[in-house]
Design goal:
It contains no helices and six strands. The chain has about 70 residues and is mainly β. The strands form two sheets. It has a four-stranded antiparallel sheet with strand order 3-2-5-6, with no helix packed on it. A two-stranded antiparallel sheet has the order 1-4.
């Protein structure tokens, strides 16, 4: 299993962040959502892309970062 941590910068404190998992050949599923910092333990059954997303707001554009993990 992996511990996945995503953190928004201090200027985005309190803004919503989501973590999603997309297994190889599968459908993207949100595995965590919350404000500023998220931490989730995830055990992939196949190669899986984990994506952290910030939807954007009136000041900052949307952004995302992704990693691929495997069992």
């Amino acid at each position: 299993s992996y511990t996945v941590v995503a953190t928004l910068g201090s200027s985005l404190a309190g803004k919503t962040l989501t973590l999603s998992a997309t297994p190889a050949g599968g459908t993207e599923t949100v595995i965590a959502a919350g404000a500023s910092t998220l931490s989730v333990v995830y055990r992939p059954s196949s190669s899986t892309v984990i994506t952290a997303r910030f939807a954007g707001d009136g000041t900052y554009a949307p952004s995302a970062a992704a990693i691929t993990i495997a069992p």
